[in-house]
Amino acid sequence: MITLKDKLFNKIQEHRPRITKLLKDHGDKVVDHVTVSQVVGGMRGVKSLITDVSYLDPNEGIRYRGYTLNEVLEKLPKPKDSEMPYVEGLYHLLLTGEIPTTKEVDELMTNFRNRRTVPSYVWDVIDSFPSDSHPMAILSAAVMSLERESHFNLKYKKGLNKSDYWDSTYEDATNLLAKLPLIGAYIYNKLYHPKMGHRHPDPNLDLGANFAYMMGKDKPYDDVSRMYFIIHADHESGNVSAHTGHLVASSLSDIYYSTSAMINGLAGPLHGLANQEVLRWLQQLRNQMGGKLPDEQELKDYVWKTLNNGQVIPGYGHAVLRKTDPRYAVQREFCLKHLPEDELFKYVDALYKVVPDILREQGKAKNPWPNVDAQSGVVQWHYGVTQFDFYTVLFSIGRAFGVLSNIIWDRALGYPLERPKSITTEMLEKMVEFDKVKSTLD
Ligand code: CMX
Q1: Residue 368: pLDDT above 90?
Q2: What residues form DSSP beta bridges with 68?
Q3: Per-residue pLDDT for 333 more than 90?
Q4: What is the pTM (predicted TM-score) of this model?
């Protein structure tokens, strides 16, 4: 049977001439122009990165390899009696653009199983952290400690042909992806359930079910894990975590350095950490309400108070999206089916009815609609993962699938070191002055 790696190689061979032709025939074609606001404002919307793994449409949301999230969840093979597909199948889709067969997913599950042994020194690194450390800091260090395992580095030192970079990068990436759920669950049990201790993975389970098992959670947490990892996997290349992973990898740092950097970027409250901020914010409100559900006016007052204190409403807004995030919608559907009576879900749903209008009235946020983080903590909380500091670790495990797929392709297509140009404020001022003088002369 043709392996995932063989299939990937064929896809790479097909794709390489497209980039060569684009560069040769159209290298000077102008793709975008850049305004002063974009230079000062974090390069919002500047078309300057390339990826085929996913595309984010402002109104429609994310597509993985052309498929909407609902299509991905519908088309990928699923374990028996499960609502959510195999995460292993998602990796196949992200890398090749093709929906795998059940047989291909089976093969990939064996492949992952053979790669998931975590060296004992990683457990030592995790254990050496004080128990009040943030789980994202521990995760980042645990991934970093694995760097000595990099095949890419070994081969590069011996002399590696550029056209073969992708091969050992694929090996490193797949090794890390197989280990990440074990590392995540170990961190969880160390910090929050030290008495339960570390659970070894069950060889008969897929990645999502094994994660639930290692976390000590019953069904349907296996589906929650699959859903969570799949919907968080990729959001094209410009978001902080994906961009950081790509940027670091562009210097040919191996994927352990790149993934650790990706995790560090995700740990910011404006990005992945927003899911824990949502829970913190909801808990504050819940405490204030002393057990009763807030009415509409009480909710509005709480939202306005947050804004008037100069804080953002966590879980709302987005740098690219201009509609409700489909990742929010997928989780909402899951909640409506499995936990419609959950108290926090009712809070989240009630907020959905008031926050967009308030943000519109305030007039600052370009997108008043909820993003993925508005809903994800509630699902975790319902199934007993109430330690909200941990939520971004779950996001990281999912995000690594997209970022690493991208890095493998970056190497396969020979994308160079990333190096945008910076200029000084004085230069910008002179450009503006020059335009003013020019227009008076015109
Ligand atoms: N609450 C209050 N104000 C908000 C807001 C929100 N949810 N979203 C945006 N704004 C404000 C911005 O802070 C900014 O204010 P200033 O002009 O005073 O700086 C203004 O609206 C314009 O911002 P924008 O162009 O609409 O949004 P950005 O691209 O700058 O930022 C994001 C995007 C996500 C950081 C922002 O919407 C935000 O802070 N949201 C809350 C945090 C959050 O949920 N982050 C998770 C995003 C998803 C993810 O990456 O995981």
Answers
A1: yes
A2: 63
A3: yes
A4: 0.95
In 375-393, which positions are buried (b, 16+ CB within 10 angstroms) versus exposed (e)?
bbbbbbbbbebebbbbbbb
CA separation for the pair 207, 398 (Å, rounded) = 11
In eight-state DSSP terms, residue 59 is T
Closest CA to ligand 1's atom 49: 271
- Statement to judge: residues 133 and 170 lie in one domain: yes
Q: Which numbered atom of ligand 1 lies nearest the CA of 320?
A: 29
Question: Domain ends where: 339, 365, 386?
Answer: 386
- The pLDDT confidence band at residue 438, using thresholds 50, 70 and 90, is confident
pLDDT (tens digit per residue) in 403-437: 999 999 999 999 999 999 999 999 999 999 877 77
Ligand 1 center to 271 CA (angstroms): 10
Q: For residue 260, give its domain range.
A: 1-25+46-272+387-417
- Residue 37 is assigned to a structural domain of this protein: no
> Ligand 1 test: best mutation among 307, 308, 318, most atoms within 8 Å of CB?
318
Pocket of ligand 1 (CB under 6 A): 239, 270-272, 274, 307, 312-319, 364-367, 371-373
Burial class (CB in 10 A: 0-12, 13-18, 19+), 146: buried
Q: Which residue do the tokens 């990939």 mark?
A: 108
Any catalytic annotation for residue 318?
yes
